[in-house]
């Protein structure tokens, strides 16, 4: 009797994963993999929190304080869920910055990049709904800003924001609607994350630059364990540096910002004192713009250029190559063969001082935009904050143009690294 093509059993599944090989790659960490783990943790802690949700903005903080005083487990789930959001954004930003540095933005990875960019956008929506459900003193401000942005998007015609934000205040109807939106969008985000992972692997297999040299390693003993250990090592160094710089433990907690006096702490951490630090660049951009509509257009422009990075890079790469080839052949047709030029164009340059310099400036500008505090200790200055404005202009220019990432003499290709 002929054996079935696929027999699903625990033994076969174990044997499959035990002998599974993955293509060889040299990475410093699996930020995307850790993001999946944190999202799974968020789903678990979020489901537990949903069982104790009370649709009343005044009662939610009181119930949370009672749970904290009586050592009930629900308050621990709230803390776990809130810290999970911080970790999700930390690993997502590290994942995005790493992709930009390695320049994994080409036509072969277009679908993976766009699905990841759309996932990043939905993540903002999920976290916004969750921030409002926290019902802190920051929730109503965040709710009003989002409602005003939606009102501006529809050119102040009617009240389309009412379907989600009602009267732009924290009330029972708003909490119920945002709770449904938070639950549905969270599971949709998980689905998009899985699609992004599948797109990434399938796009890599279709790369035209494959050299048919198959280098494989065992996924557990050689790949995952090695990458997890390197990630833990990097996190240890990050923790050590943060411990040496920020010596006051209370300043590392968001509690002093929510319930205490910031002026009592002399070492306030600009990058994590509030539970909504991940929205701080958007708020600073809206404040720095002289007109509200320009601020909304800037936010839309940011997500649009993130989404279309493969198209922007591909089009401008073709322009650079055509211009460079025309320039060289115009003055040296007799000395340079086109085949030699093409070969020179395909050289893998792992270190390019021009590329490293502008990428470092890009990270500095990102850090400046994150340093905005709602209390205005860092932002508000006489005559405005010029450094904040320059930072946003450079971020938009860096993502929208490739002139800061390439030079005529040193063209930085992405490294031959998967993920």
TrEMBL record:
<dbReference type="InterPro" id="IPR027387">
    <property type="entry name" value="Cytb/b6-like_sf"/>
</dbReference>
<dbReference type="InterPro" id="IPR005797">
    <property type="entry name" value="Cyt_b/b6_N"/>
</dbReference>
<keyword id="KW-0472">Membrane</keyword>
<feature type="transmembrane region" description="Helical">
    <location>
        <begin position="178"/>
        <end position="198"/>
    </location>
</feature>
<dbReference type="GO" id="GO:0022904">
    <property type="term" value="P:respiratory electron transport chain"/>
</dbReference>
<feature type="transmembrane region" description="Helical">
    <location>
        <begin position="87"/>
        <end position="105"/>
    </location>
</feature>
<feature type="transmembrane region" description="Helical">
    <location>
        <begin position="385"/>
        <end position="404"/>
    </location>
</feature>
<keyword id="KW-0812">Transmembrane</keyword>
<feature type="transmembrane region" description="Helical">
    <location>
        <begin position="111"/>
        <end position="134"/>
    </location>
</feature>
<dbReference type="GO" id="GO:0016020">
    <property type="term" value="C:membrane"/>
</dbReference>
<feature type="domain" description="Cytochrome b/b6 N-terminal region profile">
    <location>
        <begin position="1"/>
        <end position="214"/>
    </location>
</feature>
<dbReference type="Pfam" id="PF00033">
    <property type="entry name" value="Cytochrome_B"/>
</dbReference>
<dbReference type="GO" id="GO:0009055">
    <property type="term" value="F:electron transfer activity"/>
</dbReference>
<protein>
    <submittedName>
        <fullName>Cytochrome b</fullName>
    </submittedName>
</protein>
<dbReference type="InterPro" id="IPR016174">
    <property type="entry name" value="Di-haem_cyt_TM"/>
</dbReference>
<feature type="transmembrane region" description="Helical">
    <location>
        <begin position="348"/>
        <end position="373"/>
    </location>
</feature>
<keyword id="KW-0496">Mitochondrion</keyword>
<dbReference type="GO" id="GO:0016491">
    <property type="term" value="F:oxidoreductase activity"/>
</dbReference>
<keyword id="KW-1133">Transmembrane helix</keyword>
<feature type="transmembrane region" description="Helical">
    <location>
        <begin position="30"/>
        <end position="54"/>
    </location>
</feature>
<feature type="transmembrane region" description="Helical">
    <location>
        <begin position="141"/>
        <end position="158"/>
    </location>
</feature>
<feature type="transmembrane region" description="Helical">
    <location>
        <begin position="285"/>
        <end position="306"/>
    </location>
</feature>
């Amino acid at each position: 009797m002929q054996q079935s093509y696929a027999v699903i059993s625990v033994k076969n599944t174990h044997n499959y994963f035990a002998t599974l090989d993955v293509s060889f790659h040299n990475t410093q960490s699996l930020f995307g993999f850790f993001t999946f783990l944190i999202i799974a943790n968020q789903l678990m802690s979020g489901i537990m929190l949903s069982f104790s949700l009370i649709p009343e903005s005044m009662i939610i903080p009181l119930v949370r304080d009672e749970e904290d005083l009586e050592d009930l487990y629900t308050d621990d789930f709230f803390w776990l869920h809130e810290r999970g959001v911080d970790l999700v954004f930390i690993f997502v930003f590290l994942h995005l910055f790493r992709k930009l540095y390695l320049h994994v933005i080409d036509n072969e990875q277009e679908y993976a990049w766009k699905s990841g960019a759309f996932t990043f956008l939905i993540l903002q929506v999920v976290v916004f709904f969750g921030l409002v459900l926290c019902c802190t003193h920051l929730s109503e401000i965040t709710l009003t800003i989002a409602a005003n942005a939606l009102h501006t998007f529809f050119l102040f015609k009617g009240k389309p924001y009412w379907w989600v934000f009602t009267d732009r205040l924290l009330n029972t109807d708003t909490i119920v609607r945002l709770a449904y939106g938070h639950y549905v969008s969270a599971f949709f985000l998980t689905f998009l994350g899985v699609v992004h992972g599948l797109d990434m692997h399938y796009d890599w297999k279709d790369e035209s630059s494959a050299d048919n040299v198959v280098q494989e390693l065992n996924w557990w003993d050689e790949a995952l364990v090695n990458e997890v250990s390197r990630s833990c090592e990097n996190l240890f160094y990050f923790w050590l540096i943060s411990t040496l710089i920020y010596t006051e433990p209370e300043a590392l907690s968001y509690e002093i910002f929510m319930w205490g006096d910031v002026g009592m702490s002399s070492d306030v951490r600009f990058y994590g004192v509030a539970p909504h630090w991940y929205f701080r660049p958007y708020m600073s951009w809206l404040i720095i713009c002289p007109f509200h509509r320009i601020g909304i257009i800037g936010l839309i422009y940011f997500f649009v250029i993130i989404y279309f990075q493969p198209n922007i890079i591909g089009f401008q790469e073709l322009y650079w190559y055509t211009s460079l080839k025309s320039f060289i052949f115009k003055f040296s047709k007799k000395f340079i063969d086109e085949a030699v030029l093409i070969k020179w164009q395909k050289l893998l340059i792992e270190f390019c001082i021009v590329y490293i310099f502008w990428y470092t400036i890009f990270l500095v500008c990102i850090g400046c935009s994150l340093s905005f505090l709602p209390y205005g200790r860092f932002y508000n200055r006489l005559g405005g904050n010029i450094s904040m404005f320059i930072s946003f202009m450079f971020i938009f220019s860096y993502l929208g143009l490739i002139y800061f990432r390439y030079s005529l003499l040193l063209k930085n290709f992405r490294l031959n690294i998967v993920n």
